[in-house]
Amino acid sequence: MPTPTETVSAFCSTFLEDGGRPAVRRWFTPNTRWVNEGVSVTNGVEEAIAMIDGLETSLGISTVHIDMLAIAADGSRVLTERLDRFERADGSEIGRVMIMGIFEIEGDKIVEWRDYFDVTAVQKFSAA
C-alpha cells in the first residue's frame, strides 16, 4: 500500500492527462469531496468530472500542470504547496496559480481535497 504522500504525488503527477479526468477516476471515491475554496465544491467522481468539463468549456482549460513545490504528511493528511499551470488544447498558457492544498487519504484513495488560493487570480483567467 502506498503512503499518503506517495498517493498524492502520483495523483498530482498524472493530473495533466486529459484535464485530470483519469486521475480523478483512479484516486477519488464515489464520495470524495473536492473544495476549491471560494470557487466550487464537488462530491464524488461525476461532479468532479462535470466541474472539469465546465472549466474546459468556459475557460478553455485543457491541461493542468501541477508543479509540486513542497509536500508534507501528518498521518493520513498531506499538505502541498504547488504552482498549478493551466493551458489550452493548443498548449498556450491561460494562467498559473500558487496553491496550498490538503488531501485526506484513506487506503490509496483521496477522500477529501481542499485547495486555498487567491480567487482573484482565477477570475483573471475568465477576463483574458
TrEMBL record:
InterPro entries: LEH, NTF2-like_dom_sf. Residues 4-122 form the Limonene-1,2-epoxide hydrolase domain. SUPFAM superfamilies: NTF2-like (SSF54427). This is SnoaL-like domain-containing protein. It comes from Rhizobium sophorae. The lineage of its organism: Bacteria, Pseudomonadati, Pseudomonadota, Alphaproteobacteria, Hyphomicrobiales.
